[in-house]
Amino acid sequence: MDRDAIRKLLSHVRKGTLSVDAAMMRLRHMPYEPLGFAAIDHHRELRQGHPEVIFCEGKRPEQVLAIIRRMKASGRPVLATRATPQLFRAVKRIDRRAAYHDSARAITIQDKIRPDPSRRPKPAGGVLILTAGTSDIPVAEEAKVTLEFLGNRVETVYDVGVAGLHRLLDHRSRIEAARVLIVAAGMDGALPSVIGGWVDKPIVAVPTRIGYGASFGGIAALLTMLNSCAAGVAVVNIDNGFGAAVLAHRILRTKI
């Protein structure tokens, strides 16, 4: 239940068109709903501006489906990350609106993915997501789907890593027009530093596990980004496209 829904509910109580007991029944699952194996945080949108998101890895399909059913019952849109095609087929059977974003490994359930006019960034720029290589795209796509789910305008530029910086220069105008940049890179993880020394935009750096043996599953890229000599670079965990998207979303919502 979001702010508008609660305000409307309280307005009905004040006008006498809804009894206190009826209002209490509607509020019975706030702030969370225990399911035994999970506690659904219905209060999160009120606190943080976006609903709870389901992380599917490690959960049994029936657990994910139970969570989705309860979220749907509360009237909230659904975003499930790290989901398999098999899980999506099960979700599709309980809601035909469900969409699967293959590269992002994400499931969304909402009437339509479109920017929320109350939160839409100014036309001058939204979020631009860049990847160093093609292999980094799945992490970038997780960020893209999350940002769109949250009502943001997103653009992407893929495969512009430091092995060929001339490719990056071709997108200079788009980089300078964006309000926030998300940069995903594996291997040496150098791309966020390169861009960070070039622009005055907030940069959210995402190390990916892409690379040969000495990359240590993304740890090398993570350490490179944490040790960036360019100011204004924030780093999230390895492969955490979702976390990068939420941080970018909150930066966009901050009133300056």
Give an overview in words.
The chain has helices spanning 3-15, 20-26, 44-48, 61-73, 85-94, 137-149, 165-169, 172-177, 191-196, 219-226, 241-253, and strands at residues 33-34, 39-40, 54-55, 78-81, 99-101, 106-109, 127-131, 154-157, 180-185, 203-207, 233-235. It is α/β, with parallel strands linked by helices and 256 residues long. The chain has two domains: 31-109, no CATH class; 127-253, Rossmann fold (3-Layer(aba) Sandwich). Strand 3, helix 4 and strand 4 (78-81) form a beta-alpha-beta unit.
Number of domains: 2
Low-pLDDT stretches are 113-124
- From the 3D coordinates, which CATH architecture of the largest domain would you assign? 3-Layer(aba) Sandwich
Q: Report the sheet-strand fraction.
A: 15-25%
What helical percentage do the residues reach?
A: 25-40%
Q: Helices and strands, in N-to-C order? A: HHEEHEHEHEEEHEHHEHEHEH
Average pLDDT across residues?
Answer: 86
Global Rg:
20 Å
Main beta sheet:
5 strands, parallel
Total count of helical runs of at least 4 residues: 11
Strand order of the largest sheet: 8-7-9-10-11
Global structural class: alpha/beta
Task: Report the CATH topology name of the largest domain.
Answer: Rossmann fold
What labels would you give this structure?
2 domains, Rossmann fold, 256 residues
List strands and helices in order, with pairings.
Elements: H1 3-15, H2 20-26, E1 33-34, E2 39-40, H3 44-48, E3 54-55, H4 61-73, E4 78-81, H5 85-94, E5 99-101, E6 106-109, E7 127-131, H6 137-149, E8 154-157, H7 165-169, H8 172-177, E9 180-185, H9 191-196, E10 203-207, H10 219-226, E11 233-235, H11 241-253
Parallel strand pairs: 3-4, 7-8, 7-9, 9-10, 10-11
Antiparallel strand pairs: 1-2, 4-6, 5-6
Helix pairs in contact: 4-5, 6-11
